[in-house]
Design goal:
Length: about 140
């Protein structure tokens, strides 16, 4: 009895692969590019975290300043002897609080914008560099073929 054959599995893979003309892959260049990607991501994460810490510190300063302002305003109101004097002091305090809040919102907004700009700047540069590296890797493989 003869053994049945299946032509699909009787292929010499070394001869088959030789005829395909698959370009060689520069794994070293790809690995180096990916390492740079991870380093840029780590740097961006560190910058984002530092930005958040800076914003949190500023928010803490704002809260501390607000508590001090309220304490001073209460003392100032208690020292007022007439209704008119209290009304004037309350209006002055309300105006001061509004102006400080507005300035603080602008300050925090600028801090967030700067932090985001620095962080995304690192990522944008790395993406551009990474695409140039891919173009170079593919270009060098195409030229070698």
């Amino acid at each position: 009895m003869t053994k049945p054959t299946n032509d699909l599995f009787d292929v010499d893979m070394s001869k088959f692969m030789t005829g395909l003309k698959i370009p060689s892959i520069n794994f070293q260049a790809i690995t180096t590019s990916q390492r740079k990607n991870f380093e840029a991501l780590a740097a961006a994460n560190k910058m984002a975290f530092e930005g958040l810490q800076e914003i949190a510190r500023r928010q803490s300063e704002i809260v501390t300043s607000g508590v001090e302002d309220i304490s001073g305003a209460v003392s100032n109101l208690l020292a007022a002897t007439t209704f008119e004097d209290r009304a004037v002091k309350q209006a002055e305090f309300a105006k001061s609080v509004y102006q400080k809040a507005l300035a603080n919102f602008w300050d925090l907004g600028e801090m967030v914008t700067k932090s985001n700009s620095r962080t995304f700047g690192v990522l944008n540069k790395r993406v551009a560099d990474s695409l140039d590296e891919v173009k170079g890797i593919v270009g060098s493989q195409t030229a070698a073929s």
